[in-house]
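Self-study notes.
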Amino acid sequence: MGRKKQFLKVEGLNTYLSPFVLVYIERYLNNSKALLRENKLLKLEERNLTEITRAILLKKQFPGLGHPNTTEAQLLAQSLNLISKLNTLKQEAVKLQKLKYNSTDLNHEKELLELWNSFNPDEELSARISDQWKDLGFQGNDPATDFRGMGMLGLKNLLHFSTNYPELSKKVLKDSQDKKYWYPLAIVGINITSYCLDLLIEDSNLLNIHLFQNGISLEQFNEFYSYSMYKFNEYWLQSQLTPFLNDKPFTVMDFEQALELFKKREFNYLISGESTNLIDILANKSKKLN
């Protein structure tokens, strides 16, 4: 996957929108008392963008008295359209998170078995309920119980990582199985889902910029998740060379604290602007492993 454009073309105009401007507009809408009603309407599943755009144009006294053909009106309409898509993505992600894994649902069972096969293509699962799941980093012999907090979103995130980045995910699995410095990969994955969902719901600048740049979709949310999985593994391995916690490498006993440190470190790293496009990072890393 190549790098996406840093700016978004505005339909009908010879101009582009910066993802940073979109983040600013969304944050302004969320914090504006004057536009409280419009912001609420924008977050409904059924929303009339034309009416919302006109209401904002009039309230904020844009040039043209609310006429939709002015440059300002078209820029605002395009911005609201993208922010509306972001709100839809949030709703989709939360629905998946609330959708509990159901062992009687054949589609759920199929995806779970796909998860095993994508991580372990050369090892057959002896039975649906098996201690082999512990090798993948689940707590017990039935992974369904571990997905309770993040529901099907947790499973779909892990499955995206393992199927779209097969060599990278296998390397991460192997790293997580180190005899001395192992960590529970699947449990980490579910915690990373929680982290990414929090960023999405809380309108994190770093995730929103990624989505505005690369496309507002569940696919791109999954890409951000995959990047976070890769970076956590890298962070864990780095601790073996340069200890972060009390001058000693992480062990599984430090897992929760290590995860919190990772979240803070990765958040600061991404918002610093020093990182390159995360899709490029994943693609380049995968190429090196192939």
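Second protein, same conventions, sequence then structure:
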Amino acid sequence: MAKRIRTTSGGSDLSRSRVWRSAALGLLGMAILSCGGGDASGPPPGPPPPPPTATVPARITLEPEEVAVVAGDTVRVRARVLNDRAQPISDAVVTWTSSDPAVATVDATGLVTGLKEGNASLTATSAPATATAPLAVHSLDRATLMALYIGTFGREWTNNDGWGTDAPVGSWYGVTANEQSRVTAIDLSENGLNGQLPEDLGSLAVLPGLEVGGNDRLSGPITFSLSELGIQTLNY
């Protein structure tokens, strides 16, 4: 005998609920895909861009590394500012200082002016980096005095204190110099000079007095260039 199955409205409600749930899940999946959270088949991201060139000074090089200038003259010193990759920093600001402004000064562009004989140091700063170079100021007349010393056998002089050393020429025996280290007088009387006075003495442009009398072994005439100087006192 066949059985009759009775259905109720609850079964149709369950079916409708399942349909709505499936539709909602489908819509949610589409939303996720539209936001990029689904398929990741696009190209991978490239490498990060390189960092910008460092602009912090790490080192300074100076040219020349040792500075020499004649008193009354100038010389230019150039600074090259580098970062920690040894790359130049073109817009770096450099400040300059002299350890002894009485010997030499330096301006904002690195132009050094020698004032008088002596030694100092020159410093370039581009914070936090610094560089220092030795600075020597020589007399314009130093080479001429050395020609006199060598040409008249200075090693055999009775007194040759200071001659041929790095001391200021004004401290050499028998030499007087002004504030610019130019020779204004030479007194080497009776000091054992031997030979002939060198023609280079003609370059001592501010020399008003020359005392070399009493040196019996001096010989030869006064050179033409020396006779043109404004020497007021000459004892030969």
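Instructor comment on the second fold: The CA atoms of residues 106 and 112 lie 4 Å apart.
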